[in-house]
Amino acid sequence: MQTIIGFIAVPLGWLLSFIYSLLNDYGITLIIFTILVKGCLYPLYAAQIKSTAGMADIQPKIQALQRKYANDKETLNIKMMELYKEEKFNPMGGCLPMVIQMPIIFGLFALLRNPMAYISSDSMLLAIHESFLWIMDLSQPDLWILPIAAGITTFISFSQTQTQQGNVNNQMGPMMNIMKYLFPVMIVWMGRSFPAGITIYWFFGTLVQIGFNFRLNKLRKKMKSKSEKKHKK
Fold first, then answer.
1. Could you tell me which of 119, 185, 199, 201 has the fewest CB atoms within 10 Å of its CB?
2. Would you call 72 helix, strand, or coil by DSSP?
3. 135 bridge partner residues
4. The predicted structure's pLDDT at residue 167
5. CA distance linking residue 89 with residue 58, whole number of Å
6. CA–CA distance from 202 to each of 7, 106, 225 (Å)?
């Protein structure tokens, strides 16, 4: 795992160094870096939302099959495969984007927590200690403002995702509701102990994610409208 993280963190470190060489401001560099990385991950987010929307569309049919073949698991599995084929739905479609994202997220975390382990540029040695706005040293934690801002954006993003999933995960509903409040609190707590650079990445990354969610929600509604028109024909 460490090798994979390093394999991802090193080229991300090159990108971070390149942006800094152009801007000569580590705080702004982190923001631009975050936007670029999140932009590159957008197709994965879109694929995940499309898969979730597809599952929501066929959920009534899945529940009907589960009721009909409740006592015949083998036939149920066969009928489920037939349904997926008929609807051209890949049940693993929502998992693959998440699997791809995880090593990237770990690589980013490793890079921003300890930049000099993956960046050989001497200029970056001083850059990571630069001040930005009210933060005197970006290598040190910001105790309140950034962590709270990161927690708020995390809550908004989590709520959007929960809404987008609709009734796909009814059984997970109570757990999702708990996580909607618990996860932002965890982000605030972690943000108060991690370098401010990481919290900047998380805050602006989640802010970009909120924008993505608005865009993808429109895409999801458009797909749902097409699906409803298709089933009416």
1. 185
2. coil
3. 132
4. 46
5. 9
6. 21, 13, 34
Q: Environment class of residue 118 by beta-carbon count within 10 Å: exposed (0-12), middle (13-18) or buried (19+)?
A: buried
Residues of the chain with pLDDT under 50: 167-170
What count of Cα atoms within 13 Å lies in the side-chain half-sphere of residue 39?
A: 6
The length of the chain is 233
Q: How many other CB atoms sit within 10 Å of the CB of residue 76?
A: 17
Kindly report, residue by residue over 12-51, the tens digit of the pLDDT: 888 888 999 999 999 999 999 989 988 887 877 777 666 6
CB 152 within 8 A of CB 183: no
| Secondary structure class of 132 (helix, strand, coil) | strand
CA neighbours within 13 Å on the CB side: how many for 215?
12
Beta bridge partners of 132: 135
The model's pLDDT over 80-107, given as tens digits with 9 standing for 90+, comes to 888 777 766 666 555 555 566 677 777 8
The structure tokens listed for 221 are 């509604």
Reading phi first (left if > 0) and then psi (alpha if -120 to 50, else beta), residue 133 is in left
Taking alpha carbons only, the member of 68, 57, 91, 73 closest to residue 168 is 57
Global pTM reads 0.72
What does the alpha-carbon distance between residue 21 and residue 171 come to, in Å, rounded to a whole number? 50
